[in-house]
Amino acid sequence: MDRPVIRAAAFSGLLAALPFEAAAHQMIVFASVNCEAVLVEAKFSNGNAVQQADVRVLDGDNRLQSTLPIQTDGTVSVPLDSVDHTGGLVIEVDTGSHDNYWIVTPEDIAKNCQS
Fold first, then answer.
1. Which residues constitute the domain of residue 56?
2. Measured between alpha carbons, how far is 23 from 62 in angstroms, rounded to an integer?
């Protein structure tokens, strides 16, 4: 084989490996709201719960409201009365090597607090 063909084959092999590698390290964050708290869940794309992470709660203006450790089951509960949630919340989960976030809008909170 000539060199351009070898390079093309090597390059396509590298590209084929990249999405798998990236997906193997992805962290997923989800937050749901009831009238009392925001329940945060964090897991890796393989389904394993995040066991060590800081969960930062910021208000709608990106001001830090609280920092909590995640539980070993990958969850943490943030009481709504402990944070200013009038402008919504940004929930950031940071393991030190992976991070991701979830936005809780004022509409999410209002919708889930209606009787």
1. 26-112
2. 28
Beta bridge partners of 92: 56, 101
Report yes or no on 10 lying in a domain.
Answer: no
SS3 (DSSP) at 110: helix
* Helix (H) or strand (E) segment spanning residue 108: helix 106-112
Q: Which of 36, 42, 113 is nearest to 82 (CA)?
A: 36
pLDDT tens profile 30-86: 999 998 999 999 999 999 999 999 999 999 999 999 999 999 999 999 999 999 999
How many distinct structural domains can be found in the chain? Answer: 1
Contact 55, 76 (CB under 8 A): yes
| Other residues' Cβ atoms within 10 Å of the Cβ of residue 96 | 8
89, with CB counted inside 10 A (0-12, 13-18, 19+), is buried
66 token code pair: 């609280």
Distance (Å, whole) CA 99 – CA 103: 14
Threshold 0.90, pTM exceeds: no
